[in-house]
């Protein structure tokens, strides 16, 4: 049997009290993890210093406020079964924290002016999307959008002070969008 290493998880909140008679409970949680919590199939509960996984009931998690959540676990179906867990801390895997941090940092790129080594100024970043770890910048060029994958291989300069991102885009990528623009004029 594999033991759960507590270092692989981080605390997200605390079970406050039972809610209703069917095993629901109220949690106090850190703000900014709504999406991660909604997608979680299970949460780790700290019981006597050890983390124990509990699966979230199918009807899921309901946010009352950004930091107050009501939810139910599969195995806890009465208020009496919930009471012993009041005061216990709730944990999520470290990957969830990294995803949230990375997503926040990527959104800070919105408004940056993007330059291509060959084509010059492309425009400002208006959206940043993360498709399973593949980050794509949407750059507004005139009234058109240019989609550029963000890769360390393409970045030639990053100037936080000037809010500029200089790229060496793959050959022909920007031309696809510019040709489209020229063909419709």
Could you explain how this protein is built, in words?
- The chain has four helices and 13 strands.
- The protein is an alpha+beta fold.
- The chain has two domains: 6-102, RimM (Elongation Factor Tu (Ef-tu), domain 3), CATH 2.40.30; 108-183, Roll (SH3 type barrels).
- The strands form two sheets. Strands 4-3-7-1-2-6-5 form a seven-stranded antiparallel sheet. A six-stranded mixed sheet has the order 11-10-9-8-13-12.
- The radius of gyration is 23 Å and the shape is elongated.
- The model has no long low-confidence stretch (mean pLDDT 85).
What does this entry show, briefly?
This protein is α+β, with helices and mostly antiparallel strands and about 180 residues long.
- What is the structural class? alpha+beta
In spatial order, strands of the major sheet run: 4-3-7-1-2-6-5
- Percent in strands: 35-45%
State the distance separating the first and last CA atoms: 66 Å
Shape: elongated
Tell me the layout of helices and strands.
Elements: E1 9-19, E2 24-29, H1 34-39, E3 42-47, E4 50-55, E5 62-65, E6 68-72, H2 79-82, E7 89-93, H3 94-107, E8 113-116, E9 120-131, E10 134-141, E11 144-149, E12 155-159, E13 164-167, H4 173-183
Parallel strand pairs: 8-13
Antiparallel strand pairs: 1-2, 1-7, 2-6, 3-4, 3-7, 5-6, 8-9, 9-10, 10-11, 12-13
Short key terms for the protein model shown above:
185 residues; alpha+beta; Elongation Factor Tu (Ef-tu), domain 3; SH3 type barrels; 7-stranded antiparallel sheet; 6-stranded mixed sheet; 4 helices; 13 strands; 19% helix
